[in-house]
Amino acid sequence: MIYINKTIPFWETEKVLPLSYKTGVSIEDYENGAFLLLSDEQSAFHVAHPDATPLEVWKMELTPAPDPAPEPDPLKTARQAKLQEIVAQDEFSNKFFVSVLSGGTEIANVELWIDKDLRNSLYSITLPALQADGQTTTKLWTTGTPPQSIDVPIVWALDKLPLLEIYAKRTYDLKASNEAAAYAATTVEEIAQIDVKANYPYFLTFELNLDLNTQDNANNTTETNS
Q1: Coil, helix or strand at residue 172
Q2: What is the helix (H) or strand (E) element at residue 12, kind and residue range?
Q3: pLDDT per residue over 63-83, tens digit each?
Q4: pTM recorded for the entire structure
């Protein structure tokens, strides 16, 4: 006789289990910890399929093996990896620097970035509105953690924003061009030849001369008082 159980998968015994053992006649009983006695047909199935699980023997039915995972497409894999490189390079390009000068000496060099929406808002709405309200400076924020503010003249910012827009357009064109090349490639070798770093423009560094700004503010104050 052969019993199946969740703790003892197959228990061969010469006698029927005594009443002190929890026995059953259904899968539900088995799931609740009972011993199920195999029929002659089920026992024969176990002998024919020694690797079968207790439930497979009870049902006298082997569970179909899962379909093998499809082989990865080398071209698709290479393309996805290249697209990730392109995005990473583009994100790396999203920065510019402000060199703060005082007395002819650089006293700070900070990293910043202004995304497209904020550039457009600053140039067309925010900065002109601040000027109309009598403001002469505005705050920009560094990319570090935590971010730090830097006060810049509004006229200075309006002068630099178009240069930043040109830089951003060039980096976007390179990103889009590299992505188009990756999708158009028909071989892994063609994808490997795409240099995601090539032709990227140098980071922009804008000088902010505090001495000139102080002088401009003094002139503005004199003109206002007169």
Answers
A1: helix
A2: strand 10-12
A3: 988 888 888 999 999 999 999
A4: 0.66
